[in-house]
Amino acid sequence: MGVVGGIKCIKYLMFAFNCLFWLAGTAVLAIGLWLRFDPKTKGLFEGEESPSVFFTGVYILIAAGALMMVVGFLGCCGAIQESPCMLGLFFFCLLIIFAVEIAAGIWGLSNQDKIVNDVIEFYEKTFENYKNTKQEVLKETLRLIQFGLNCCGTTGTIFDGAKDTCPKKEGLEAFITKSCPEAISEVFNSKMHVIAGVGIGIGVIMIFGMIFSMMLCCAIRKTREVV
């Protein structure tokens, strides 16, 4: 005898939620692999001066995407097959992800200044090395950063010696624009509340996922005991 009533509704909500969770995991994994191996971005990870935060970030994306796919699969199968074992594994995996998310948030907040300084230092060294060597890999790395942040050089002028890597500007903006160290600091400082909000939102969704999985698991066991 299967679950009925409100619990049956939770069952199909769990299935739909975990289908979306699996798709999100696929997207996160694809983005992580793209960032790591795309010719335009792999220079961020292969340079001698690349900060560890780049490696850490991209491999966290890859691992998180793979884990999300596994968790989504467990949740889908556990819900549709009414399997207490799979639902228990789903709950346990969500609990681990939730704990890791909290730990990552605490680490990120406590090391924010160091991360910003490491990224700025990497940019400045890459900029100087490109001015001296004109290597194509360094050029692509600079273009990626400068076009992404809409900045130019270490001082914000086209006279820094790497004009060909800067976004095209017109009028006075062609001579004076935002420096990249300033732009990097602004991005980290202005987007922290957005990142925190997204993290809190994901955490709340995970809590509801754990609650619903336990409700469904208990209802399935109770139904089987009655039978």
From TrEMBL:
Example GO biological process: cell differentiation
GO cellular component: extracellular exosome; plasma membrane
Annotated TM spans: 12-37, 57-80, 87-109, 194-220
Keywords carried by this UniProt record: Cell adhesion, Cell membrane, Disulfide bond, Fertilization, Lipoprotein, Membrane, Palmitate, Secreted, Transmembrane, Transmembrane helix
GO molecular function terms noted in the UniProt entry: integrin binding
Membrane topology according to the record: Multi-pass membrane protein
Compartmental location: Cell membrane; Membrane; Secreted, Extracellular exosome
Family label: Belongs to the tetraspanin (TM4SF) family.
Name of this chain's protein: Tetraspanin
Organism: Albula goreensis
